Amino acid sequence: MRFVAVVAGALALAVGSVAAQKAGDDPAIAKVRTAYQAAAGTQDGPAIAKLYTADGVEMPPNAPAAKGRAAIEAYHKAFGAQFMMHGITITPTETHVMGDRAMDVGTYKQTLMGMKDGSMMEDTGKYVVLLKKDASGWLITHAIYNSDKPLPAPKK
After folding, report:
1. Which stretches of 6-136 are assigned E, i.e. beta strand?
2. Which domains does the chain have, with CATH numbers?
3. Do residues 23 and 103 make contact, with C-beta atoms less than 8 angstroms apart?
4. Among 13, 39, 47, 92, which is most buried by a count of CB atoms within 10 Å?
C-alpha cells in the first residue's frame, strides 16, 4: 500500500509580486496553498489541476509523474478511488519569491481511509513546489512530495 500526500504541493504554493528573493511566507503563495489544501481535502481533482500551469507536473510518491492538467486530474481521480481523505494540513517552512518564479517548501499531515477495507492511515511528509506568475496569477509548475513513513513490509 502506498502512502500518498495529496498535497501538496501542494502541494503548496503561490506568490505575490516581489522583485527580489524573499524568504518567509507570502500572502499570494498562501492563497494557492490554501486552495490546494481545500481541493485535496475534498478530493476535487479538477480544482487541483486548475492550480497548475497547462504543462505542470505533479510528482507523487510511488507513482509516475503526472504531466499536464488532464493527467493531474486523472491521477487524483484514481487516488480517490483508492483512498478517502479525512483531513490534510499543509505547513510551509520556507518560501522564496524570485521575480515571476517562486519556491514553496514545507510539510504535510493527512489522514486517509482505504476504500477497500476502511483502514485508517496517518501520514506525514514533505513537499517542494515551484510556481510561475503569469497574467492570471501564480500557478504551480512542479510539485513533488513524499511520505516520512516507511513502505509497508513485503507480504510473505
Report:
1. 18-23, 52-59, 66-67, 83-99, 101-114, 120-134
2. 18-147 (3.10.450.50)
3. no
4. 13
**149 CB neighbour count, 10 Å cutoff:** 13
- Closest C-alpha among 59, 76, 57, 49 to residue 126: 59
Closest CA to 45 of 34, 57, 36, 55: 36
> Measured in whole angstroms, how far is the alpha carbon of residue 21 from the centre of its chain?
23
Question: Among candidates 137, 139, 125, 45, which has minimal Cα distance to 91?
Answer: 125
Judge contact between 145 and 8, C-beta under 8 A: yes
pLDDT digits (tens, 9 = 90+) for 21-62: 445 788 999 999 999 999 999 999 999 999 999 999 999 998
Residue 36 in contact with residue 9, Cβ under 8 Å? yes
- State the average pLDDT over residues 8-20: 33
The answer to whether the CB of 33 falls within 8 A of the CB of 93 is: no
For residues 111 and 39, give the distance between their C-alpha atoms in angstroms, rounded to a whole number: 15
| Residue type at position 113 | M
